[in-house]
Amino acid sequence: MTLTPGARRILDVASVLFYEHGIHAVGVDTIAAESGVTKRTLYDRFGSKDALVADYLRARDERWRAHVVAAVEAESDPVRRALAPFAALEDWVAEGAGRGCAFVNAFAELDRPDHPGRAVIHDEKRWLRALFATELAGAGVADAPGLALQLLVLHEGALVTHAVAAEPAALRAAGDAARLLVDAARA
Amino acid sequence: MTLTPGARRILDVASVLFYEHGIHAVGVDTIAAESGVTKRTLYDRFGSKDALVADYLRARDERWRAHVVAAVEAESDPVRRALAPFAALEDWVAEGAGRGCAFVNAFAELDRPDHPGRAVIHDEKRWLRALFATELAGAGVADAPGLALQLLVLHEGALVTHAVAAEPAALRAAGDAARLLVDAARA
DNA sequence: CCTCCACTACACTGATCTGTGAAGCCCGAC
DNA sequence: GTCGGGCTTCACAGATCAGTGTAGTGGAGG
């Protein structure tokens, strides 16, 4: 899994360009040129654009999960742990996620269900829902899976609304709503 | 605003193809061929692909607003009116919106802020939030604009989660959460 | 009859797309 | 000193991209 220096640069450049401009809008020639690498190297390392796209999503997924897990682990109070992903979202956006959720955006562009990136997208959402469910169960919520789905909906909506509606207050609003739902479920 | 027969067909075909496969993935040649029209006609009627994309979004926006307004007007109870867009979402999805929110998807592909479609997308989200705010105020909610933003987040999240996470229960979960938030705000 | 217009036919531009083939260079490891 | 691998160079394939120019057809309305 260790990438060669060239492959590392390609993946880094591709990640920025895919996220910022969309997948179809960025050609492999651009990625290669911007990485200071020939197109030959790109294909020798990744095999195809589709595979590179999947690797882009995998790499972003890894970073995102680490970010969320760190935010959860930093809390000890069960309720605060369950709501930590909403706090994590605020840092994440502040660090440059102004174009919304990369996975939602990729889903919009990858219409073929068998595209290698689709599985990564699907897994990312399932993972977050499962994390919510685990933490909610730990917080003594009765229907943890059901509430987890509601928190996932709020979470997705927060990032999307923040970007698409250009509404910075969406993140805080989602976090507040999530807290109210959790409190109601524990009462 | 009345379209010629050819233009009508082009717009109908483009709407399906753009929504189902994405904007960049569908070429004008395909749209023209599928409409049983020459590319010349397409350009004579719409001027450019960007303009056609904007018209696609405008047309979908119109249908969507009419659908939501009908759902709201069908209710008399103030709370049910405010929550009507969530019910409307279920019909909408059942009628074939399996690829998520067309506006969110388009946002993912249109990276240029000056693209003519971007204004349509932005307006659609602002409109729905304003509708929520109006109905919530009518239902006697104190901070109607604030709660309207939360309902918008739930609404966006519902459609996205339904499609991206392949989770049909997301719609109902969002509606339930919305009702709980509204009830809490009226207590 | 004549004019307008929606539309066809079709050839073409120039750019860009993903992906490949063949040759060779440099450097570290064995 | 030889071998492998990370990488370059560059030419090229074949398709598809958005968009245009020119000429002509057929029908509806004045």
Report on the structure:
- The structure is a homodimer of 187-residue chains.
- The mean pLDDT of chain A is 97.
- In chain A, helix 1 packs across helix 4 and helix 4 packs parallel to helix 7.
- By secondary structure, chain A is mainly α.
- Chain A has 2 domains: 47 residues, Arc Repressor Mutant, subunit A (Orthogonal Bundle), CATH 1.10.10.60; 130 residues, Orthogonal Bundle (Tetracycline Repressor, domain 2).
- The first copy, chain A, starts with a helix and ends with a helix.
- The radius of gyration of chain A is 18 Å and the shape is elongated.
- In chain A, 78% of the residues lie in helices and 0% in strands.
- The first copy, chain A, binds a DNA duplex (30 and 30 nucleotides) through helix 1 and helix 3.
Which features would summarize this protein structure in a list?
Tetracycline Repressor, domain 2; 187 residues; homodimer; mainly alpha; 78% helix; DNA-binding; 2 domains; Arc Repressor Mutant, subunit A
Task: Spell out the blueprint of helices and strands.
Two copies of one chain form a homodimer.
Chain A: H1 5-21, H2 28-35, H3 39-46, H4 49-73, H5 78-94, H6 102-109, H7 116-138, H8 144-164, H9 169-186
Chain A binds a DNA duplex (30 and 30 nucleotides) through residues 4-7, 27-29, 37-41, 43-45, 48-49.
Short description:
Chain A has helices spanning 5-21, 28-35, 39-46, 49-73, 78-94, 102-109, 116-138, 144-164, 169-186.
Greatest chain-chain interface? A-B, 47 and 47 residues
Largest sheet of chain A: none
How many helical elements of chain A?
9
Multimeric status of the protein: homodimer
Average pLDDT of chain A, rounded to a whole number, is 97
**What percent of residues of chain A are in strands?**
under 5%
Q: What structural class do you assign from the helix and strand content of chain A?
A: mainly alpha
Please report the total strand number of chain A as a whole number: 0
| Overall tally of structural domains of chain A | 2
pLDDT < 50 runs, ≥5 residues of chain A:
none
Report, as a whole number of angstroms, the end-to-end distance of chain A.
47 Å
CATH topology of the largest domain in chain A: Tetracycline Repressor, domain 2
CATH class of the largest domain in chain A: Mainly Alpha
